[in-house]
Amino acid sequence: MSKAGDLYGQSLYDLAAESNLSDEILGEMELIKGIFKENPDYVTLLSEPSVPKNERLKLVDEAFGDGCQQYLLNFIKILIEKGLLREFSACQKRFRKCYNEEHGIADALVTTAVALDEAQLKQLTDKLEKISGKKVLLKQKVDSGVLGGVRVDLEGQLFDGTVKGRLSELRKKVDETVI
């Protein structure tokens, strides 16, 4: 994460938590992050110094003014004024991290060769919650390159039970033995 993203994301979180708006602002930040990701030209326009600043701020008011919490709207305007709008994603990640820590939530990513069904996802989530002692928000990624098995990244801790991971470990042990 960037220093600006950490600083600004933390500041917005502190303000939101103090005002009991962290749930609302987190949801809105995730929506806006998606809008920015799907519309990179819009972010470019809002970051373009040749477009007068008051025009760029007016565009933000028109786009988000009615459906966005005022603190978040002002936050986006500050990022535009400071030339840091491209850091919005890093700010959102920091905000999410602060939110998760305060609410006892852990993000996890499960990678499998084929999609897991709802029952399997529930069973895995329950197991990860027992391991972490937190409520787990599990995202799923399908990657045929893992060949089989399951790889889970739980807050930076990697559990690799994939065929690819096992083959890699085996190859490493053979190399160590031969050398």
From TrEMBL:
<keyword id="KW-0375">Hydrogen ion transport</keyword>
<dbReference type="Pfam" id="PF00213">
    <property type="entry name" value="OSCP"/>
</dbReference>
<dbReference type="InterPro" id="IPR000711">
    <property type="entry name" value="ATPase_OSCP/dsu"/>
</dbReference>
<keyword id="KW-0813">Transport</keyword>
<dbReference type="GO" id="GO:0045259">
    <property type="term" value="C:proton-transporting ATP synthase complex"/>
</dbReference>
<protein>
    <recommendedName>
        <fullName>ATP synthase subunit delta</fullName>
    </recommendedName>
</protein>
<dbReference type="InterPro" id="IPR026015">
    <property type="entry name" value="ATP_synth_OSCP/delta_N_sf"/>
</dbReference>
<keyword id="KW-0066">ATP synthesis</keyword>
<feature type="coiled-coil region">
    <location>
        <begin position="114"/>
        <end position="141"/>
    </location>
</feature>
<keyword id="KW-0472">Membrane</keyword>
<comment type="function">
    <text>This protein is part of the stalk that links CF(0) to CF(1). It either transmits conformational changes from CF(0) to CF(1) or is implicated in proton conduction.</text>
</comment>
<keyword id="KW-0139">CF(1)</keyword>
<dbReference type="GO" id="GO:0005886">
    <property type="term" value="C:plasma membrane"/>
</dbReference>
<comment type="similarity">
    <text>Belongs to the ATPase delta chain family.</text>
</comment>
<keyword id="KW-1003">Cell membrane</keyword>
<comment type="function">
    <text>F(1)F(0) ATP synthase produces ATP from ADP in the presence of a proton or sodium gradient. F-type ATPases consist of two structural domains, F(1) containing the extramembraneous catalytic core and F(0) containing the membrane proton channel, linked together by a central stalk and a peripheral stalk. During catalysis, ATP synthesis in the catalytic domain of F(1) is coupled via a rotary mechanism of the central stalk subunits to proton translocation.</text>
</comment>
<dbReference type="GO" id="GO:0046933">
    <property type="term" value="F:proton-transporting ATP synthase activity, rotational mechanism"/>
</dbReference>
<keyword id="KW-0406">Ion transport</keyword>
<keyword id="KW-0175">Coiled coil</keyword>
